[in-house]
Specification:
This protein is of the alpha/beta class. It has three domains: about 1-125, no CATH class; about 125-205; about 210-255. The chain contains ten helices and nine strands.
């Protein structure tokens, strides 16, 4: 997580997947009453290098303007996590509203005072160019959030920025999550994005036998095209035309060309 939890990352044990914690019994109501939108929080168990476990709560606030509600909810959730799980606990907040950076909760009552400070990634302070230059895996998610703030209700800008995230996100295990997140945050239905997501979904949900059958068909199709290409090359057809008819790359055709 850029700029947000570097010290914690140093103490975390590397794992391929984090175990989620059910948050239903931990939630305060946490809704944006102006928009009627449920605010979602994420909870994870974190294995640590010293052999113990901890847990982490993520708060993601989208365009939230009630300055007293977020800090109170962070505090309530921290206390509930700490009391219920008895583990080291931290809270991280990603905030996209235009209110001042809210990273402290204070409550006083007749001589008693509680103060909680937590780390906040305040998206409006980050420039889009800064996030474009950041090559860490989570940066495209933050870039999508930042560009969504810039786009507002402008559908042309939303479509443009969704296409940018789709075009610039490298192929990786995070790619599908990132472009699907971008599609949702920009509220667009870009045909190219939808097509890629659909293809990956169909591949991931395809029964194993059907997947093997598809692989066999693809291999047979490639072998047939190669046989056709060799025949055309032997007849003297130029490489460019053979590539056009078979859709095989010229580099492959050059290896097949008779000497």
């Amino acid at each position: 997580m850029p700029d947000l939890a570097a010290d914690m990352a140093d103490d975390m044990k590397p794992v391929r997947k984090l175990d989620g914690i059910s948050g239903r019994e931990l939630h305060s109501k946490g809704t944006d009453s102006d928009r009627g939108m449920l605010v979602n929080d994420l909870f994870f168990n974190i294995p640590m290098l010293d052999g113990e476990c901890g847990n982490i709560a993520f708060f993601i606030e989208q365009m939230h303007e009630k300055s007293d509600e977020l800090p109170r909810r962070v505090f309530d959730t921290f206390v509930r996590l700490r009391e219920k799980l008895r583990l080291r606990t931290t809270c991280l907040v990603i905030f996209t509203g235009s209110s001042p950076n809210m990273n402290t909760y204070v409550e006083t009552c007749y001589g008693c005072e509680v103060t909680m400070k937590y780390r906040t990634y305040y998206l409006p302070e980050k420039s889009a160019d800064e996030l474009r230059a950041d090559k860490r895996p989570f940066a495209p998610v933050m870039l999508a959030g930042r560009l969504a703030l810039d786009a507002g209700d402008d559908i042309k800008l939303r479509e443009k920025y969704a296409a940018e995230i789709h075009a610039t996100t490298p192929k990786s295990k995070e790619r599908m999550f990132i472009i699907d997140f971008a599609r949702r945050i920009f509220k667009v239905d870009d045909p190219e994005i939808s097509k890629e997501l659909k293809e990956v979904y169909e591949l991931e949900t395809m029964p194993l036998e059907e997947y093997r059958k598809q692989i066999r068909l693809d291999n047979a199709r490639i072998e047939t095209l190669e046989e056709v290409a060799i025949s055309l090359l032997e007849d003297g057809m130029p490489l460019q035309q053979v590539a056009k008819h078979t859709r095989l790359p010229i580099e492959e055709l050059q290896k097949m060309k008779p000497h």
